[in-house]
């Protein structure tokens, strides 16, 4: 299973829900969303900045895309970015091999 980070924003609909129930535990809802597709949520954190929350979840891209589709489709969330952990050193090793034979257009 790959490690993913889902960052997103609440909509006006969600903020109205928080005003109605300030103690709402969104982490439990996120956990249930993950489990419903066979993924495993590791953490849920509210953020200050361009995103309102970040969720670390282990699973597949298809599972993350399904979570995005369903939760944004509800109208409560928007702008969910799906970011996948990546092995940068392994990528750099492959890039070194590619760059040794790559020619810039026109050269």
Structure description:
The protein has one domain (2-101): Alpha-Beta Plaits. It is elongated, with a radius of gyration of 18 Å. It has 107 residues and is α+β, with helices and mostly antiparallel strands. It has helices at 12-20, 26-36, 61-73, 88-101; strands spanning 2-10, 40-46, 53-59, 77-84. The protein has a 4-stranded antiparallel β-sheet. The N and C termini lie far apart (42 Å). The longest helix has 14 residues, at 88-101. Helices cover 44% and strands 29% of the residues. It has 4 helices and 4 strands, in the order βααββαβα. The model has no long low-confidence stretch (mean pLDDT 96).
Helix content: 40-55%
Radius of gyration: 18 Å
Low-confidence runs of at least 5 consecutive residues: none
* CATH topology term: Alpha-Beta Plaits
Total DSSP E strands: 4
Helix/strand/pairing category? alpha+beta
Query: Looking at this structure, what is the CATH superfamily?
Result: Lrp/AsnC effector binding domain/regulation of amino acid metabolism (RAM) domain
> CATH class, anyone?
Alpha Beta
Average pLDDT value? 96
**How would you spell out the order of helices and strands?**
EHHEEHEH
Q: Proportion of β residues?
A: 25-35%
């Amino acid at each position: 299973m790959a490690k993913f980070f889902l960052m997103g924003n609440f909509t006006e609909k969600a903020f109205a829900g928080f005003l109605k129930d300030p103690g709402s535990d969104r982490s439990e809802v996120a956990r249930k969303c993950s489990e419903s597709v066979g993924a495993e949520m590791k953490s849920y954190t509210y953020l200050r900045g361009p995103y309102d929350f970040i969720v670390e979840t282990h699973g597949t891209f298809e599972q993350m895309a399904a979570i995005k589709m369903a939760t944004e489709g509800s109208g409560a969330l928007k702008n969910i970015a799906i970011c996948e952990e990546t092995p940068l050193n392994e990528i750099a090793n492959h890039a070194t091999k590619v760059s040794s034979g790559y020619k810039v257009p026109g050269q």
